[in-house]
Design goal:
The protein is α/β, with parallel strands linked by helices. It has two domains: 150 residues, Alpha-Beta Complex (Aspartate Aminotransferase, domain 1); 243 residues, 3-Layer(aba) Sandwich (Aspartate Aminotransferase, domain 2). Helix content is 35%, strand content 16%. It is built from 13 helices and 17 strands. Bound molecules: 4'-deoxy-4'-aminopyridoxal-5'-phosphate (PMP).
């Protein structure tokens, strides 16, 4: 492994995942990845929700290799290219048109946090207001605007400057579900005495992935959307982690019937781990001046190629969506058998929370030793998060769940058997 290798430029202490999984990964295909010792791991981490179609999916790889072989354009800022046009055509025909969604498409820069920054900036520009409502447990990225709307204390501490212009509200289920966030917001904005100035927007995840797989109910999301409409605030759904089919539908908000004003997408969009992000918004909100929000990597042609192939392969019909919804039941049934654990999830994102926050980390390590990659999430890393590729086979899913059960059993204290009198 390279951390000890004097011939390799030393990496910063900031690296994190490689501390939990200290091996050198070399190859990957489908739901499995292999390390330099030839050891195979079942990957229920999937690039933190980036590899929804598994590693190196064949139809995407074929399209990418053909494009490279043909000397297709790889970098183009925001010039028109054949790959860009083809991606936008696939997005329109496979995703937006079938859902009746009339969105303009902005390429904000390559990563999820870029999509969030563009969304926040646009919402403030359109409304002329500064504050944004964000939720407890939220995760929206590490650049300063996104970090301001993120909840995690340790991550926020890294900013080094004040993180402001945010009004924080309890997410669905926070504090034991004692406070109804949308109702509170409605009351505060209706009151002439609350001291809360009208925010520009509300930013929300339908399921908080980093926040410990906290799931907002459809009813809660609809109530939130109503409050936004009533008080003329823009609704931003950050679908960076839960979009692209993770919860079933292409967009995670589809099941609730809510139609956001602005949507952030990234992670699994290219389907190949190639950076690509989008900020989608209603056409009336498109008040950008040309070049007002720019950047060198706004639309990566190789990612366009694999993204277009992914949309045509997996989103021309609802087969993948239906399969994901069926899998949800299969996973939930097995996870609920785990002793001492609370289980939450939708589609193919599931969280297993243990009474003792340290247990999740121990389970993740025990799983690694058994050849299963699962990460932890939540403010204290108290939740084991399952993000298998959406293309995982039935056998692989069963195998992963069995490895998880074995890992939980391995770290749980043995049951005390009462001594016979
Ligand atoms: N929003 C959400 C919901 C996320 O889960 C993430 C990444 N975990 C981000 C934004 C930030 O994306 P990126 O790391 O690509 O900047």
């Amino acid at each position: 492994m390279h951390p000890q290798d004097p011939d390799v430029a030393p990496e910063s202490e900031v690296r994190s995942y490689s501390r939990d999984w200290p091996t050198l990964f070399t190859h990957a295909r489908g739901s499995r990845t292999t390390d330099a010792h030839g050891r195979s791991y079942l990957d229920f981490f999937a690039g933190a929700g980036t590899l929804n179609y598994g590693h190196n999916p064949a139809p995407l790889k074929k399209a990418l290799l053909a494009y490279l072989e043909d000397d297709g354009i790889t970098h183009s800022l925001d010039l028109f290219t054949a790959a860009r046009t083809d991606f936008l055509r696939a997005l329109q025909s496979c995703v937006l048109a079938p859902r009746g969604l009339d969105y303009r498409v902005q390429f904000p820069g390559p990563t999820g946090t870029n999509a969030v920054e563009a969304a926040l900036k646009l919402a403030r520009k359109v409304t002329g207001r500064q504050t944004v409502v964000a939720f407890t447990g939220a995760f929206h990225g590490m650049s300063l605007g996104s970090l301001a709307v993120t909840g995690n204390e340790a991550k926020r501490a890294g900013a080094g400057v004040a993180l402001g212009q945010v009004h924080r509200l309890p997410y669905d289920g926070f504090a034991g579900g004692t406070v109804n966030g949308p109702a509170l917001l409605d009351a505060m904005l209706t009151s002439k005495n609350s001291g809360l100035d009208r925010p520009a927007a509300v930013i929300v995840e339908t399921v908080q992935g980093e926040g410990g797989v906290q799931v907002a109910s459809d009813q809660w999301l609809r109530a939130l959307a109503r409050v936004c409409r009533r008080h003329d605030m823009l609704l931003i759904v950050d679908d960076v982690q839960m979009g692209c089919g993770r919860t079933g539908g292409f967009f995670s908000f589809e099941a609730s019937g809510v139609v956001p004003d602005i949507v952030c997408l990234s992670k699994a969009l290219s389907g190949y781990g190639l950076p690509l992000a989008l900020t989608l918004f209603r056409p009336e909100l498109d008040v950008w001046a040309p070049g007002e929000h720019n950047g060198t990597f706004r639309g990566h042609n190789l990612a366009f190629v694999t993204a277009a192939a992914a949309l045509r392969e997996f989103w021309q019909n609802d087969l993948l969506e239906q399969r994901t919804l069926r899998r949800a039941e299969q996973i939930a049934d097995r996870l609920r058998e785990l002793p001492g654990a609370r289980v939450r999830g939708r589609g193919l994102v599931w969280g297993v929370e243990f009474d003792d926050p340290a247990t999740a980390g121990r389970v993740s390590r025990a799983a690694f030793e058994r050849g299963l990659l699962v990460e932890t999430s939540g403010a204290r890393g108290e939740v084991v998060k399952l993000l298998p590729p959406l293309t995982v086979s039935d056998a692989e899913l069963e195998e992963g769940l069995t490895l998880l059960e074995e890992s939980v059993a391995a770290v749980s204290p043995p049951l005390r058997v009462p001594l016979a009198a």
